[in-house]
Write a structure and sequence with these properties.
By secondary structure, this protein is of the alpha+beta class. Helices cover 35% and strands 22% of the residues. Its cofactor is Zn(2+).
Length: 865
């Protein structure tokens, strides 16, 4: 599963959206051990941020949640055959399931299947015959309990046929932050009444949603082969796991497609998708690689998905295990309930992540789409080929998929791109760790959906990066090959991964796996150094609260620089307070702790301005340059610092240029004119759209200065991100002659530009713009609505109260009923904007708070004053 709650695009936007959440205070509570110089997690430009989860009290105490063991296996489900058709008007699935099973070990005379919200028509024992034998069963709308005709031994296979109707919309409302709904089967625009969306039906199985559309043993430690026959309207395209083995036209004008998966996989990985897709075909080593998209996007599909064959080749070679399935397809669907899903041979994507117009494509960063493609593909090995035996071991799926994003970025785009991924992911985890610290492998939780968090993803990926660096490249991938080969087509747990690394390296790695996988938290380090008698004396203090977190064993590389020469020193930290003496020939220009940027830690490293300048000018890559710029920002008025920042505007890596621009924000030094000229030149001539947009944002940080010529030019830019930045700049200093230009953008569907327009009209709009908010709040993507709805409330402050009724009704309805938690939050904040002028809204807000079921959202409401 990719990117809990938001998709990659939503996460990329949230770095901008969160800036509007000024009324949510103290979203980063102080750590249990704090000091004035504690560094925050790095803040990277236009990068994914942690899921919007705020708790007023840090949850660092040992869990009191119930133990969650792997499911006991009584029966092995070895094969599932489904024959399904759809009633679009009623949003029902009519199905016939033929299941092949055998007792796992102990003899069995009863079978319990997961089957949620069905009408069960019949249950028959087939055992190879055409005419079945009716079996007795009981059904409580969740579990189908079947009495077999006799006692079966583990050597005896038996076959059942179940006829049923799945009615997903009659199921109780469920879901979580990661997967916002859990009804398993979804009809999108089933009657075709919404002209902005196609008609589609698709499924989402993780965690236990497959049993909402077919009877099964819905546990990750089951493995089954599969055949699904889909009867659909003649013009519709279908997709499911495995290969299309048959397609026949029926007398009634429908068509039945049969998809077959010959290798076994877990039931939660079963999928189907039906719709008016354009199928763009590709290949890898003779295997079909297909991209299913809306017809309007078929001509940009290869630009988005086109690196998939190269990824297949890269991952196959690195792992020494060729892609193990018969085909690979990727489908973009509307209203998907998460970012993406790694169904075996057929990954599903939220359409916002992978469908872009030609104009939008240049703005699509690696983090916005390609990373999710790599992530879901890597799951085909880690998650599908080898599957976690329980949700407690979810990082065995997700940490590897997360880490694949860094591996691919490094392979395709170089070390700086990989460092950018590393930085972003570490920041995501540290953000979440302000309010939540859990072991990666969690045998105690309340809800299995709780496992889908920044721990399982971002922390897990960083732990694998440390393991990779510790054992070395050859040993790392040799161990992964051993792990995959030994556990193929089966379920696994953390001990098997540890054993694969120990058998490969010959080293007992219990210390590493225990502190990083089995214990909560992370090291919080205070690092200082002095120079004495040809030695650097390095002091490292572990200042984390060790009552519930360990004192870590940390292999770390420290670099000492003399001129252009760096010397690496390998140290091993094992104590809470430890000193190391590093031999040097003279006082170094720079001492750099964690030189390779591998360590998962919150590091407060004391460095002088001279050291930071040296680091910026001699840094080996993006991460060190970024750290130096951040350390120097408060000194930007210094001539040496501002000159270094201006030089960094020519750095070959775009994110370094963005960091340098941010360092010049509100610059007040002696180079004022030169800095402003550099900023204007960058805003107009820089090749990268994100860098141009950042330059515009930095220009807008100078109060009472007129850069409207730059902004007006940017309104015609080819990049939506740049146009959006110009709109936001003009929102702070509007001019009469640009209002018509901005009005011409109102019909845009681009999320970044919609956010900017809502800010502009929120600050400067009049009653004439009221209708725009009413209309666009109907069709804007959820990640836009979070900001748009608050800005709607800001606009309504300036219009007559008698005109506000429709807007208030819209905000109240969305605050109460919208399926996305962060949209409900935006609507609530929009209503809150009106309380000062309309105190009668206070009971409404109180009622919304009292009826909200999401505890995290309730916590956020309590912080809005």
């Amino acid at each position: 599963m990719k990117y809990p709650v938001f998709g990659a695009l939503a996460l990329a936007l949230m770095s901008q959206l969160m800036a509007s959440a000024q009324t949510i205070k103290s979203s980063r509570p102080a750590s249990s051990v704090s000091h004035p110089t504690r560094k925050k997690a790095p803040e990277t430009p236009a990068a994914p941020v942690a899921a919007l989860v705020v708790s007023p009290v840090p949850n660092w105490l040992p869990s009191t949640n119930p133990q969650q063991p792997a499911a006991t296996t009584l029966h092995d489900l070895t094969d599932t055959k489904l024959d399904v058709r759809f009633d679009w008007a009623k949003q029902w699935l009519f199905g016939t399931a033929t299941l092949t099973l055998r007792p796992h070990f102990y003899p069995q005379s009863q079978l319990v299947l997961d089957a949620k919200g069905f009408d069960v028509k019949s249950v028959e024992l087939m055992n190879g015959s055409r005419k079945g034998k009716d079996l007795k069963y009981s059904y409580d709308k969740k579990k189908l309990t079947i009495s077999l005709d006799r006692l079966y031994q583990r050597t005896e296979q038996y076959q059942l046929r179940i006829q049923y109707v799945a009615k997903p919309n009659e199921l109780p409302k469920g879901g979580s932050e990661a997967i916002t709904d859990d009804k398993g089967l979804y009809f999108i625009n089933p009657l075709g009444t919404d002209k902005t969306k196609p008609r589609q039906v698709w499924t989402q199985g993780e965690t236990e949603g497959s049993s909402c559309w077919f009877p099964t043993i819905d546990r990750p430690n089951q493995r089954m082969t599969q055949e699904i026959s889909l009867t659909v309207e003649s013009g519709q395209k279908t997709l499911s796991n495995g290969l299309l083995t048959a397609s026949r036209r029926n007398p009634d004008g429908t068509r039945t497609d049969t998809w077959k998966l010959n290798q076994p996989h877990a039931p939660y990985l079963a999928m189907l998708a039906v719709g008016d897709f354009a199928v763009v075909s590709d290949t890898w080593r003779g295997k079909p690689v297909d991209y299913y998209v809306d017809p309007a996007y078929q001509y940009t599909a290869k630009q988005v998905f086109g690196n998939t064959p190269a990824m297949l080749e890269f991952f196959s070679k690195k792992l020494g295990v060729d892609y193990p399935w018969d085909k690979y397809a990727q489908v973009a669907v509307h209203d998907f309930v998460s970012g993406a899903m790694e169904n075996t041979t057929a990954s599903t994507f939220q359409q916002q992540l992978v469908q872009f117009t030609p104009r939008e494509l240049p703005d699509v960063s690696y983090a916005a789409s390609e990373s999710v493609i790599a992530h879901e593909l890597f799951h085909q090995w880690f998650g599908d080929y080898v599957t976690t035996e329980s949700w407690s071991n979810l990082p065995l799926n997700e940490s590897f998929a997360d880490y694949s994003e860094l591996l691919w970025a490094e392979h395709k785009y170089g070390a700086d791109a990989a460092a950018y991924v590393q930085q972003t992911k570490l920041r995501n985890y540290l953000e979440e760790a302000q309010t939540k610290r859990e072991p990666l492998i969690r045998y105690q939780y309340t809800n299995r959906e709780d496992m889908f968090d920044r721990h399982s993803y971002d922390k897990g990926g960083r732990v694998l990066h440390m393991l990779h660096e510790y054992v070395g490249d050859d040993a790392f991938f040799t161990a992964l090959n051993r792990y995959l080969t030994a556990n193929k087509f089966s379920s696994t747990e953390i001990a098997k991964l540890r054993l694969a690394f120990e058998e490969t390296t010959g080293e007992d790695l219990m210390w590493f796996f225990d502190q990083w996988f089995m214990q909560r938290g992370h090291p919080e380090l205070r690092v200082t150094h002095t120079y004495e008698n040809s030695q650097v004396v390095l002091r490292v203090q572990q200042v984390q609260d060790t009552l519930y977190q360990p004192v870590y064993r940390l292999p770390v590389t420290v670099a000492t620089w003399n001129g252009n020469q760096a010397t690496e020193h390998r140290i091993l930290i094992t104590k809470a307070d430890q000193k190391f003496r590093l031999q040097v020939n003279q006082r170094p220009n720079l001492v750099k702790f964690d030189d390779d940027g591998t360590l998962l830690a919150d590091i407060d490293e004391t460095q002088s301005q001279e050291e930071l300048l040296f680091q910026l000018n001699h840094a080996r890559g993006y991460l060190q340059k970024y750290q130096a710029i951040q350390g120097l920002r408060s000194k930007s008025a210094d001539l040496l610092v501002s000159s270094a920042f201006r030089s960094a505007l020519n750095d070959p890596f775009w994110a370094t240029r963005v960091a340098a621009l941010d360092g010049l924000r509100r610059y007040r030094g002696a180079e004022g004119n030169a800095v402003r000229k550099d900023l204007q030149r960058t805003a107009l001539n820089e090749k990268n759209g994100t860098v141009r947009a950042t330059a515009i944002s930095v220009l807008a940080s100078f109060p009472n200065e007129d850069f409207s010529e730059v902004y007006n030019t940017a309104l015609k830019d080819s990049s939506y991100v740049v146009v959006g930045a110009a709109v936001e700049a003009l929102a702070k200093a509007p001019t009469a002659n640009t209002r018509a230009q901005i009005a011409a953008l109102q019909s845009t569907a681009n999320p970044a530009l919609l956010v900017a327009l809502s800010k502009y009209y929120g600050l400067n709009g009049t009653l004439d713009d009221y209708q725009w908010f009413l209309q666009r709040s109907k069709d804007a993507p959820a990640e836009v609505l979070y900001v748009m709805l608050e800005n709607f409330g800001t606009l309504m402050q300036r219009i007559p109260p008698i005109e506000r009724e429709k807007g208030i009704q819209r905000l109240e309805a969305m605050a109460r009923t919208h399926p996305q938690m962060y949209v409900r939050l935006g609507a609530y904040k929009g209503l809150h904007e009106l309380v000062a002028s309309m105190p009668t809204l206070k009971p409404t807000l109180q009622d919304i708070r009292s009826k909200e079921k999401d505890d995290n959202l309730k916590s956020m409401y309590s912080l809005i004053q």
